[in-house]
Design brief:
The complex is a heterodimer of chains A (550) and B (646).
Chain A: H1 6-23, H2 30-46, H3 48-51, E1 59-68, E2 73-79, H4 84-100, H5 109-128, H6 132-141, H7 143-153, H8 158-188, H9 200-204, H10 218-233, H11 242-249, H12 252-277, H13 279-305, H14 310-330, H15 334-365, H16 376-379, H17 381-394, H18 401-416, H19 418-443, H20 449-452, H21 463-481, H22 483-499, E3 508-511, H23 528-532, E4 540-541
Parallel strand pairs in A: 1-3
Antiparallel strand pairs in A: 1-2, 3-4
Helix pairs in contact in A: 1-2, 1-5, 2-4, 4-5, 4-12, 4-15, 4-21, 5-6, 5-7, 5-12, 6-8, 7-8, 8-10, 8-11, 10-12, 11-14, 12-13, 12-14, 12-15, 13-14, 13-19, 14-15, 14-18, 14-19, 15-17, 15-18, 15-21, 15-22, 17-19, 18-19, 18-21, 21-22
Chain B: H1 3-23, H2 30-53, E1 63-74, E2 77-86, H3 87-110, H4 117-136, H5 140-158, H6 165-196, H7 201-207, H8 220-235, H9 244-247, H10 253-262, H11 267-274, H12 276-280, H13 283-304, H14 310-330, H15 334-361, H16 374-377, H17 379-393, H18 399-413, H19 419-444, H20 462-477, H21 485-490, H22 498-503, H23 520-547, H24 551-557, H25 560-567, H26 572-621, H27 626-645
Helix pairs in contact in B: 1-2, 1-4, 2-3, 2-4, 3-4, 3-10, 3-15, 3-20, 4-5, 5-6, 6-8, 8-11, 8-13, 10-15, 11-15, 13-14, 13-19, 14-15, 14-18, 14-19, 15-17, 15-18, 15-20, 17-19, 17-20, 18-19, 18-23, 19-23
Classes of the chains: A mainly alpha (550), B mainly alpha (646).
Amino acid sequence: MAQMPLLSLIVFMPLLFAALMALMPGNRGVRPMALVASLIQFGVSLLLFKYYDASTPALQLVEQHSWIPEFGISYFIGVDGISLWLILLTTFLLPIVVLGSWNAIEQKVKAFHVALFALQTAMLGSFVAMDLVLFYVFFELSLVPMYFIVGIWGGARRVYASMKFFIYTMAGSVLMLLAIIYLMFAARDTEGLGYFTANVLELYKLKLPFTADGLMSPQALLFFAFSAAFAIKVPMFPVHTWLPDAHVEAPTPGSVVLAGVMLKMGTYGFVRFVIPMFPEAAEHFGWVFLFLGAVGIVYGALVAMVQPDIKKLVAYSSVSHMGYVMLGIFAMNTYGMTGALYQMLNHGISTGALFLLVGMIYERTHSREIEKYGGLAKVLPIYTIIFFIVTLSSIAVPMTNGFVGEFLILLGSFQASKLIGAIAVTGVIFGAVYMLWMFKRVFFGEKGELVRDEKHPLHDLSVREIVVMAPLLVLIFWMGLLPNHFLKYSKSSIDHLMQNKDAYQLGVQTMGDAVNRSASVLPGTLLPETQEADSKVTAKANMTGAGVGR
Amino acid sequence: MKPELIFSVLLLAPLIGFLFNGLRWKSKNYMLAGTVATGAAAVSFAMSIVAVSRLFGEGAPTAIQANFYTWAAMDLLSIDVSFVIDRISALMVLVVTGVGTLIHLFSVGYMSHDERPSKYFAYLNLFLFNMLLLILGDNLLMMFVGWEGVGLCSYLLIGFWFSDKEKAAAGMKAFVTNRIGDAGFLLGIFVIFGLFGTLNFAEIISKLSAFSVETGWTGPITLACLFLFIGATGKSAQVPLYVWLPDAMAGPTPVSALIHAATMVTAGVYMIIRLSPLFMLAPNAMAVVATIGAITALMAAVIGLAQNDIKKVLAYSTVSQLGYMFLACGVGAFGAAMFHLMTHAFFKALMFLGSGSVIHGMHEEQDIRKMGGLKKYMPITHATFFIGWIAIIGIPPFAGFFSKDEILWYAFASERGSQWFWLAGLIGAATTAFYMTRLMALTFWRKSRFDAHKVHPHEAGPSMLIPLIVLAVLSAIGGFMGIPHVIGEILPGHPGNWLEHWLKGSIAAVPMTAEMKHATTMEWILMGISVSIAGLSAVTAFSFYVLDPSRPAKFVSLFPRLHRFVENKLMVDEFYGAQIIQPLINASRALWAFVDVNIIDKATFVVGDLVRGVGSTARTLQSGNLQQYALYIALGAVAVMFYVLK
C-alpha cells in the first residue's frame, strides 16, 4: 500500500471513468455510472487522511517520473497542507455536481459527463503538479472541457460567453508560459542552478535578480506574468468581466465547477508559485493586489446589489468573495493566508450551493429574474430554509464557515494595512445588503408572477435535491463551528510558508522503505522536523537529492 | 456540579429547545411548543442561579469558567470556546434568563392564535442561546459570535410575518444597520488584537497596566474604543444608527419586549461595561460615548412625544433609555449603567408585555388614538402598566428612580461629567415623564374611543398575566439593590448600596470631582430637582390629556410644522434614504453600466480589434499581386540605400 501511487490514482481515475463512459453505448445508464464513479473517486480521495501527515510542511505522497529529461521536466506530483483541502474540495463537489445536474442536462448526456470527468482530472492535476510544465499542461487542459460545457450546454449567448472565457484565460496563460520558459533558462544559467529544470522545489531555490525600484528586473516581470495568468483566473478586479458572462450562460453544473473549483486554481497559483518563487517582488508589489482585492470586495458587492438576474448576482458575489481571498493572500501573514485558504473552501461550498439552488428554481420556472419572484417562502418552505442557510454562509454569519474565513482575512489584512483593512471591512456590510435584499425580493412579500401561476404550481425540493444540498449544509456548520478540525491539517504548511517567505524551501517526505524507487531521485531540502516525524509509518525516508535533470 | 456541566446545560437547553421546535416547525400545537421553549428557558434560568450562587459567600471564587474546545489557533491568535460567569455576567445572565423565561411564558398565550407557533418558539430559543453566548463568552470573538447571532434572530423575528412586505423590509433594515455597527466592532477587535495579541477579556484587562491614559484622538486604545462604540451604536440603537429599532416593532410584541427592550439592545452597554478599564484609558472616546448617549436620550424622547403607535412610543422610549446608559458609561459610572440596564429590563419588558396584552385585547389595534378607557376592561394590565409608568418616570421608591438618579448624579459630579450632561439628562427625564403619561392617559384613562360594540377588550389568560405581575413587582422593588448612600444613611438599618459593593473591583469607575465627593447636600438638591421636574412634567401631561383633552390639539396648532416634523421622526429615515441609500444604488448601477460594460469590456474588445486589425493589415501585404510585391521591393531598396548612404 505504501507504494501505491495514491495521488496519481486520484488524479487519473476520473479520466479513466470518462473513457469508460465514452465507450458506453447510448446515453442510458451514464448518470448512475457517473454518480457511482464520482463517489468512488471521493472515497479514494478520503484515503489521503490516512497517509497525510499534518505535522510536517513537507511535500508528501510524492511521485516523480522523468518526462523530458533534456529540459528537466518530470511528472512530479505531491500534496501538502496548501493543496490537500483543494483536492478534497474538488472530489467532494463532483458527486454533488453529478447528482445536481440529473435534470439540468438533457442533451448529449454522455458527452457532458465525459467532459465533466476530464475536467476533474485537469483540475486535480493542477493542484498536485509540482513541475511547472506539468502544471501548465493541466492548467490549460482544464480550459477545454469547460469551454465545451459552456459552449454546448450553455444558455442563449453561450458562444460569446465561452469564447470570452477562453480568450481571457488564454491571454493570461500565454504570459505564464513565457515566464515558465524564462524560468527554466534562468535555472540553467550558471548564476542559477546550472541545469534545466521545471521542478518547482528546485525553482524555489532560484535567486532571481530583483531591484526594488524597477519594474524591469527579471523577478518583477516574472511576478507580473504569473500574476496576470492567475489574476484572470481568480478573477480579480478589473479582469473579472468574463466571469458573469460565463456563469450566466453556463449550465448549473458548469457554474458549480467553475465557481467551486476552477477559480481556486488562480488563487492556489498565487500561494503555490507566485509568493514563494518571487518573494521580493511579491513583498514589493503586493500592495497592488492587496488594494485590488479590497476594491474587488466592495466593487463586486455593489455591482451584485443591482443585478436583476439572480445568477448574475451570485456571479458578482463571487468577484467579491474572491477579492477576500486575494486580500488574505497578500496580507502576507498567517492569519490572512489561513483565512484565504479557508475562504477558498467556503466559496466553493457556499457559492457552489447557491448556483445549485439557483439552478433548481430555474428548472421549475425557467426564469432567473428577481422581479418576477416574491413570496417564495410560503410556497417552497424547504427550499427557502436551505437557501437561507446558504445565504448566511455567504454573508459570513458566525457559526457558518464563511465567518471563519472572512474574520481571519480581515484580521490579517488589517494587521498588514489599516486602511485596506478598513475598506475591506465595509464588504461585510455590502455583502449583507445584496444577499438579503435579493432574499427579501425573492422569498418574502406578496407572491410574484412566477409564484402565483396557478397552472404551474411549484413543487418543493425533491429527495434528490435535498440529498444534493445536505452535505453542503453539514459542511457549512461543521466548518463554522469547528474550524480547527480543518485548519490543523494546513497549519504547518502555512506556518512554514509564512515564516520562510523570503527564502522558501520545501522538502519532501516519502513513505515506504528507503530504497523506494521514486525516492532515490527525489530532489528537495531536508527539513529538521521531518527527520523526527516518523512515528506513524514504519519507515520514512527523507532524501536530499540532486535535481533530476542534472 | 462541575462548571463544564453547568455551562453545558445552561447553553444547550435553549439550543435543544430550538432544535425540537425547529424540526417540527409546521406544527400548530402552541401548547407543546411553548411548554418546551419556556421549559428550556427556565432550565437556563435555574442553572444561572446555581452558577451565580457559587459566587456568594466567604472565600467564593470571583468567577467560574469552563473551556470547551479550541476554535482556532495560529501564530499569536488562540481562540477558545470558553465561558465565564463573573460578577458582571452574573447579573446579566440572571436578567436575560429570568426576564427571558417570563417572556417565553407570556408568548404561550400571545402566540396561541398564530399560524406558526413552533417556528416562533424555535427562534425565541435560538435567540436566548445566542444571547447567552454573547454574555458568557470570555473573549471578544465569542461575544461577537453571539452578537451577530442575536442580530440574526432579531432579523428572523422582526420579519416573522414576512408575507407583509414592510415587515420583511424592517427585518432587513435591522440586520443591515446592525451590520454597519458590526463592521465597527470587527475593526475594534482587530485594533485590540494588534495591541494586546489576545482577545480574552481577562488577559486584555491584565495587560492594561502597561498603558497610560491617552490624550489624543488617534491613539490605538482610543481608536479601539471608538470602533467598539460604533458596534454598540448599531446593536443598542444609538444615534446615528438607531433607525432600525422603531421599525423592529413589526415583530410580535413579546419579541419587542425580550429582544428590543430588555436584552439584546443592551448588549452594547454590556460590552462597554465589560471593557470599562479599557475605556478608562481613552477619555476622548468616553466623551464621545457620553455625548452620543445624551443626544440619543434627548432626541428619542422628543420623537416619542408625538408617536401614536403604542409600540413606537415604547420603542423610542427604549432608544432614549439606552442613551442614558451610554451617558452613564461615558461619564465613568459603569455601575450606574449596569444598574439602569437591569431596572430598565424590568420596567420596559413589563410595559412592552403590557402593550402586548393591550394589543391582544384590542384585536391587533396599536393606535393609541383609538384606545382609551382600557383601565375598566383590563384592570391587571392597567395596574402593572401603572407601576411600569411610575418606575420609568422616576418616582421614588420605584426602580427607575434609583438608577436614573444615579446616572444624573454621576453625569453632574463625575470627573468626566459636566453640567451639560446633567441638564440633557434632566430634560430627557422631563420629556420621558410627559410622553409616558400621555401614553398612559390615551391608552387606559378617560373615555373609550373605540366602538364598544365591535371591539371587546378583554384581559388575557394567566400565562400572560403572571409575567406582568412578576415584572411589576421587580419594577417596584428592583431599585433597592442600588440605594444611594445619602438615602441609605437616613433609612433604618442603614442599607448599603449592594450593587456598587457587588461590582466593586470588577468594573472601573471614574472618581467624583474633589468638591463633589462629600457634597451630600448637592446630591439631595439635584435629586429633588429631577424628581420634581419629572413630576411637574407628568402633571402637565395629565392636565393635557386627561383634564382637558382639547388642549393638545390647540397647543400643537401653534406650530404645526414643528409638530409634523417630530411626528415624522425628524425625517431621519427620509434623509438616509435620499442622501445615502439611493445614491449608493445609483452609483452601483453606474459602476456596472459604466465600468464593467463600457470601460473594461470595451478595453478588452479594443485589444481584440487591435489584434484583428494588425492581422488584416498584415494580410494585405500578401495579396499575391506581383506588381505590389515589386513595389515593396523597390521601396525596400530605396530605404536600404537611404540608410547606407546617409
